[in-house]
Design goal:
This is 3-hydroxybutyryl-CoA dehydrogenase. It comes from Chryseotalea sanaruensis. Belongs to the 3-hydroxyacyl-CoA dehydrogenase family. GO terms for molecular function: NAD+ binding; oxidoreductase activity, acting on the CH-OH group of donors, NAD or NADP as acceptor. The chain is of the alpha/beta class. Helices cover 49% and strands 14% of the residues. It has twelve helices and eight strands. An eight-stranded mixed beta sheet has the order 3-2-1-4-5-6-7-8, sandwiched between helices. The relative contact order is 0.09. The structure holds acetoacetyl-coenzyme A. Acetoacetyl-coenzyme A binds next to helix 2, helix 8 and helix 10.
Length: 282
């Protein structure tokens, strides 16, 4: 496997492209917007500069990484040569189903189609393609160049061969892959989101303030960020949509999103990306 296509150049997509390119793969980074692609390349360069400054990457390594990335605005052109596609578009079921339907017809018949979805069913996504055995979840964590985990999610029809290929591929990126099965929230978000939701409930019920809740979890549990800061970092709209997947998928009231989270998202307070969430960013 040499040629990788990454669909979506937002926070996750540019991080995924960065990591593949840094490890010598040819990357086709695809987005419908030329501006988004330009922004993504600027972000990748800035993050490579951090690595150069820390001497974990040479100037030559940075140059080579950037040369390994080509950008495309047409899905058809971007996926044509790919051995592996990693879809990292917006977390929206209809959008992802359309992308998979379309790319299934353009990608090589033996290409593996993976998705970075944080909670949408891999089996459902695979069902719109003619190759459900070659569809798999490759769930990277933000910030992708820093976080070691890849949650590798097997759909109902994913073969052992495809799973093993993706486990090996993740190791080539110097990540630690963990294989899990396809149930709502997989493992990462099934455990993370109830914690974040409980932190929001603690605030909503007046048990403690934002900074107090985060300090308890940072200093008491050695988490690098408190749950409310982490929710802002992930995006409150993303947290809400994952909680809804858990709530719908298991039908268990314990996953019901806190009304405060619902209100904040409706009011446009989505965390870092909107300039305000539990904290202010502007
Ligand atoms: N690219 C490259 N390097 C980066 C980077 C990026 N985008 N962002 C940060 N770094 C590097 C920095 O250069 C620094 O490196 P050194 O320690 O070697 O000097 C290191 O990462 C730490 O960065 P900072 O000093 O700027 O900041 P920090 O110490 O506060 O750490 C953090 C930042 C790594 C984000 C840390 O706060 C953290 O680990 N937070 C939790 C992240 C987390 O839980 N992510 C998972 C979210 S859930 C998800 O992604 C999936 C989902 O489905 C919702």
């Amino acid at each position: 496997m040499k040629n990788i296509a990454v669909i979506g150049s937002g926070t996750m997509g540019n991080g995924i492209a960065h990591v593949f390119a840094q490890h010598g793969f040819s990357v086709a980074l695809i987005d419908i917007s030329e501006d988004a692609l330009k922004k993504a390349l600027t972000t990748i360069e800035k993050n490579l500069d951090r690595q150069v400054a820390k001497q974990t990457l040479t100037e030559e390594g940075k140059k080579q990484t950037l040369q390994n990335i080509k950008t495309f605005t047409q899905l058809k052109d971007g996926v044509a040569n790919a051995d592996l596609v990693v879809e990292a578009a917006t977390e929206n079921v209809e959008l992802k189903l359309n992308i998979f339907k379309e790319m299934d017809s353009y990608a090589k018949p033996d290409a593996i189609l993976s998705t970075n979805t944080s909670s949408i069913s891999i089996t459902k996504i695979a069902s719109v393609t003619k190759r459900p055995d070659k569809v798999i979840g490759m769930h990277f964590m933000n910030p992708v160049p820093v976080m070691k985990l890849v949650e590798v999610i097997r759909g109902y029809n994913t073969t052992d061969e495809v799973t093993n290929t993706i486990m090996d591929m993740s190791k080539k990126l110097q990540k630690v892959p963990v294989e899990v099965n396809d149930y709502p929230g997989f493992v990462a978000n099934r455990i993370l989101m109830p914690m974040i939701n409980e932190a929001i409930y603690s605030l909503y019920e007046g048990v403690a303030g934002v900074e107090e809740i985060d300090t308890v979890m940072k200093l008491g549990m050695a988490h690098p960020m408190g749950p409310l800061q982490l929710a802002d970092f992930i995006g409150l709209d993303v947290c809400l949509s994952i909680l809804r997947v858990l709530h719908d998928g298991f039908g268990n009231p314990k996953y019901a999103p806190c009304p405060l989270l619902v209100n904040m998202v409706q009011a446009g307070h989505k965390g870092v990306k909107s300039g305000s969430g539990f904290y202010q960013y502007t």
